[in-house]
Each structure stands twice: as C-alpha cells, then as structure tokens.
Amino acid sequence: QVQLVESGGGLVQAGGSLRLSCAASGRTFSSYNMAWFRQLPGKERERIARISKTGLSTSYSDSVQGRFTISRDNAKNTVYLQMNSLKPEDTAVYYCTAEDTDSWGQGTQVTVSS
How far apart are the first and last CA of the chain? Predict the structure, then answer.
C-alpha cells in the first residue's frame, strides 16, 4: 500500500495561485496513475485531475481545465497540482489518491477569498 501526504494548501485571494504537493511512500510510486480530488462544502468528492504512471497523459474536469496543471516527479515520489486563476468556488479540501488503491491523503484545505 502507498501512503500519501498532501501539503501546500492555504488562503489566497481570487486570481492567485497555489501549488499543492502529494508525497508518496511505500510501494513503487511510478506503478500508479495518480489523481487529485476535491470536496466542496456540502458536496461529494469529485475528481479534478488525473495523470498517468509516466506523466505523459493528463486529464482534467471542465471546472479546472485551463487553470490547473497536474504533474509528477517519479524520482521524488511526488505529484503536484499547480492551481492558477483561483476562484472562490475552488474553495475545498483537496486530496490526492493512487488509482485502483484505497490510498488517500489526509487532505489540504484551500480557501480562496473574493
């Protein structure tokens, strides 16, 4: 099983940027497709970005397409989420996960003020 720890959340003004990191330990990180999810207050958790094992393939939800970028560094066992042009509606707890596992991080809060 892989253990995941997110970091990089915080409070930012609308239009600003943040970069989230998700550090993995345990089994071989490069064996997993990775994804970022978020959970808005009162809503179900939704997937917003996904990256393949090699990092060559990525996909995004419509809500973040063009503003967020997912990337990974397999040498550092880390996946990133660069978030630009943040909006108040991006306020949520952000989680990373290794696909096809039950592994989730503890989440990191992102708050965007208007």
Answer: 40
Tokens of 16: 């600003």
Cα-to-chain-centroid distance, residue 22: 7
- Tokens 């993995």 sit on residue: 24
Query: Which residue stretches of 1-114 are H helix?
Result: none
Output the DSSP codes for 8-26. --EEEETT--EEEEEEEEE
Q: Are 32 and 53 in contact (CB under 8 A)?
A: yes
On whether the CB atoms of residues 70 and 55 are closer than 8 A, the answer is no
Is residue 39 within 8 Å of 93, Cβ to Cβ?
yes
At which residue do the structure tokens 């397999």 appear?
A: 74
Separation between Cα atoms, residue 110 and residue 102, nearest integer Å: 23
pLDDT in tens, 40-72: 988 999 999 999 999 999 999 999 999 999 999
Query: Residues 79-107: pLDDT tens digits?
Result: 999 999 999 999 999 999 999 898 999 99
